[in-house]
Amino acid sequence: MAADERRAHMRDRIKAGPPPGILCYADGAPVAWVQVGPRHDVPQFNSPRTVSRPLEEGDARDPSNWAVSCFFLLPKLRGKGMSHRLLAAAIDHARRHGARRLEACPIDHVKQSKSVTLCIGSTAIFDAAGFETVARRKDGRPLMRLELRDRPCRTENALG
């Protein structure tokens, strides 16, 4: 997708709802973001050539199958638990909007990981939130899943 197409796609997602992610502010300025929404709203997550592709053909079209696909944190916030809080908020956001399953394709964090590759999240934060590995199509890149049925929301304000 070209940059203009991505911008138009994001505008359309915002108009249609639910919001495609959570934006965190400090002192009135955005400082962190997590993208979370129905899998079908993240076309690059569903390409047959990606490690994040769905396990089953219909999973990409199922509106109750959601994905956490991107994190952004200002450098000064990294290493302070913000990714864990963003993921907790993403889980609650997905649950409140009818998701029954949440998937991610993080990276196994190693010392030489570049911050740019961690935009997909570290396996450790998904492990800590209860996600389970359901496929491993590439070394260091598990497809992880959290079933949301019968799990209560953890907090009303996970970022607080």
Automatic annotation (TrEMBL):
Any single Pfam family the record assigns to this protein: Acetyltransf_1
InterPro entries linked: Acyl_CoA_acyltransferase, GNAT_dom
PROSITE patterns associated with the record: GNAT (PS51186)
Domain of life where this protein originates: Bacteria
Domain N-acetyltransferase as annotated: residue spans: 1-149
An example molecular function term from Gene Ontology annotations: acyltransferase activity, transferring groups other than amino-acyl groups
Protein name, UniProt field: GNAT superfamily N-acetyltransferase
Taxonomy of the source species: Bacteria, Pseudomonadati, Pseudomonadota, Alphaproteobacteria, Hyphomicrobiales
